[in-house]
Amino acid sequence: MRLAAVFAVTVLTALLGTRAGNVRAAFPGLAPPFEQQDFLTGFPNDGHFGPTGIAFSGNGDILVADAADGNLYRFTAAGGRAGTPLSHIGPTLGLVFAGDGKLYAARRASSSIVELDAKSGAVVRTVASGFSNLIAGLAVDPKSSDIFATDQAANGYASSPGVFRINPSNGTVTTYANGALFTAPDGLVLDPDGILYVSNERGSGDVIRVDQQGNASVLVTLPGGPDGLAVGKPGGSLAGSLIVDRNDGVISRIDLTTTPITVTEFASGGSRGDFVAVSPDGYLFATQTDLVVKFSPASFQVSVGGTRSSLPLQIYVGFIAIALLAAIGLGSGALWRRARIRRKQLAVVAANPTEVEIPRSLPQARAITGTGSATASGRLIEQCGDGTTKTHEIGDGSISIGAAPECTIRVAKTADIANYHARVSFRRGRYMLHHTGGPSAVTTVSGQRVDWVRLEAGDEIQVGSHRLLFEAPATSP
Question: Is pLDDT at 86 greater than 60 in this prediction?
Answer without folding.
Answer: yes
